[in-house]
Amino acid sequence: MTESTYNIAVVGAGAVGLSAALAFARDGFKTVLVGGLDTRRDGRTVALLNGSVRFLEALGAWPSIVREAAPLETMRIVDDTGSLFRPPPASFQAGEIGLDAFGWNIENTALVEKLAEAAQACVNLTHVPEFATGFEASDTGASLTLAGGGTVRASLVVAADGRNSKLRQIAGIGTRTWSYPQSAVTVTLAHDRGHRETSTEFHTRHGPFTLVPLPGRRSSLVWVTSKAEAERLSQLDEAALAAAIERQAQSHLGVMRVDGPRGLVPMTGLSVNRYWARRVALVGEAAHVFPPIGAQGLNLGFRDVASLRDAVVDGQNEGHEPGSEETLTRYQSSRDLDVRLRTAAVDGLNRTLLAGMLPTDFLRGAGLLALSNIGPLRRVVMREGVLPRVGAPRLMQGPSTG
Questions:
Q1: Residues 6+ positions from 194 with CB-CB distance below 8 Å
Q2: Which structural domain, as residue segments, surrounds residue 136?
Q3: How deeply is 175 buried, as exposed, middle or buried, from its count of CB atoms within 10 A (0-12, 13-18, 19+)?
Q4: How far is it, in rounded angstroms, from Cα 371 to Cα 287?
Q5: Which CATH number does the domain housing residue 385 bear?
Q6: Which of 76, 158, 178, 353 has its CA 20 to 30 A from that of 330?
Q7: CA-CA distance, 250 to 254, in Å (whole number)?
Q8: 215, 255, 359 from 194: Cα distances, Å
Q9: What's the whole-model pTM score?
Q10: What is the rounded CA–CA span in Å between residue 94 and residue 386?
Q11: Is position 105 within any domain?
Q12: Helix (H) or strand (E) holding 161
């Protein structure tokens, strides 16, 4: 049995875990990343909002990532609920708030591959491609037991091991879970017409139907609908599925073809009663799970990492080690309100679409109409969506490529 000692151990080698390992290693902490890479294509993409772009720039990973991504210059919302109070389509331009793009859309697997390349080239960072099977914390540090029999010791363990986090369970951190009467069909599409760097979201009575640009004449789709309909769609052959998508999209991108694997994602949510326990901090889906609406999940995971990095650096400057209670309490205070507000926003949008009640339809329609016609209000909302200032971690405050 071998034993190695580090300042920080990150468990989970997805995009959030890789970014955490990079962030700490680049700050000079002796860091180990524990976990195997999963680069199987599953038809899912992520829209990296401007704060996440700044974060990835700070990590030195953005130049290779942007080559695989498509900019989101315009966001278009179409009310397709059939409501009596249906407003006209609304479009929002990134240029209105001084950006070239609200964000960039990239396939999940491509993002993980590029972050893994950056991690491989990073000094102070060791990758151990094994599962962590055990965790213990003490006054002097934390100990991880590996599947191969080895042991990793660190002052702080970062749990980036996903929604079914083993570390969260071992640490005894409580969770609240919920679900919706929906599922999401995800797939990559090719189409005849150019998307013009425009993300189009149709609000339907069963949930959002969102087409997001990819490089070339390609887009990613997240189609939220009833569980039964999502199951039916997922069983269609490629030609029939493409035809159904084209009809729902009102043919605005022309003829469509399936251009990659498809996925069927349950609409669920998860929150935790705290973001840390002794010697361990939760980030990403170990701390919060969102349905695939509003591009919040991974972007919030990157905010977790950047906030934890600030707490560790500030704690060190005050003489505290990375896994100290003072450092982890600071991390907790930086995340609680931010995550709760965004959880409520995503949940509220989805539930108003499902409600089907005239007062709710009126309020949603009036709100969208106000955003379309009141310039200052529209710009404030857009900035908060992609450039949140209050409580923004330092690595998300730097200059952006836009």
A1: 217
A2: 3-177+269-396
A3: middle
A4: 32
A5: 3.50.50.60
A6: 178
A7: 9
A8: 10, 11, 37
A9: 0.89
A10: 10
A11: yes
A12: none
